[in-house]
Amino acid sequence: MGAKMNVRFFGTTIGVFGVVAPYNGVSNVALDVQFAIDGGSSTSFTSPSPDPSVVALNLTQYYQSHNLSPGEHVLTITNMVDKDIVMIDYYLIQSGYGGSPVPPPQILPFDRAATPPNTPSSPSQSTSQQSLPLSVTNSASSTSETLSHQSSSGSSSTTGQSVQKSDGV
Fold it and tell me: Which residue ranges form the domains of the chain, and what is each CATH number?
């Protein structure tokens, strides 16, 4: 079995659209993808047999959910063919909240436990600092910020941030 991916979204339906190409990876086989919402039963999408004379079938709908309760859901996408590529273009999500803005979907790591940062056991010996300029401009004002990251070498590390802000017209 191939790779898995989780997509967290808020809404009552989700559609998944992508590309079907004759060579979706190193194998020349039909695309076979499974979709499951919130750990429920899965639905399969299998593309037509590869046709080398066709460059690609764009905007192909791989999946469409129906009648989900309003709220947060997780869509699990499983590529059933090793070494094949699932080319997802976009997700179409309906909120079910009467025009409320819907947060964008988030790609979640699959089968990975969160790892805590390294815990230092002795004090730091030297320190280095990096600054990254960040500028945001709109018609009313201009904002310039500098984010500083401070780290230490040796067996421990320290992180600090400083923000410098200047507003202008």
Answer: 3-97 (2.60.120.260)
